[in-house]
Amino acid sequence: MHHSLDAIRHKIKKKKKKKKKKKKKKKKKKKKKKKKKKKKKKKKKKKKKKKKKKKKKKKKKKKKKKKKKKKKKKKKKKKKKKKKKKKKKNLNLNLNLNLNLNLLV
Distances in Å between the alpha carbon of 69 and those of 58, 91, 99? Predict the structure, then answer.
């Protein structure tokens, strides 16, 4: 009788082990679902493309620098105008004479 009880216990242990193995397989299936979640993380990489747009903004800053150069040119022109104003007093008489001559011709 002892042998038969031991044999029965042994079979019960084997069945429990098989059940445990089946449970482990189910856990592996759950891990596969987690991998699908990782694919969702790849969508976050699209946000990195927005960072490239920021690089375009840097190009706009370069354009602003060009505008500053234009302002410098304008300042130079103003200086020239001041010089012309001094000459204009003398030139006005000459221009008037030239205009009068042109009208006569």
Answer: 18, 32, 38
15-50: per-residue pLDDT in tens? 776 665 555 666 666 666 666 666 666 666 666 666
Per-residue tokens: 74 = 């304008």
User: Number of H helices and number of E strands within the chain?
Assistant: 2, 0
Q: Please state, in angstroms and rounded to a whole number, the distance separating the CA atoms of residues 16 and 14.
A: 5
Q: What is the chain's alpha carbon radius of gyration, rounded to the nearest angstrom?
A: 46
- How far apart CA 90 and CA 42 sit, in angstroms, is 77
Q: Phi, psi (5° rounding) for residue 92?
A: -55, -40
**Can you give the pTM of this predicted structure?**
0.16
Residue 36's Cβ-count burial label (10 Å; 0-12, 13-18, 19+) is exposed
Sign of the Cα pseudo-torsion (68, 70, 73, 75, in order): negative
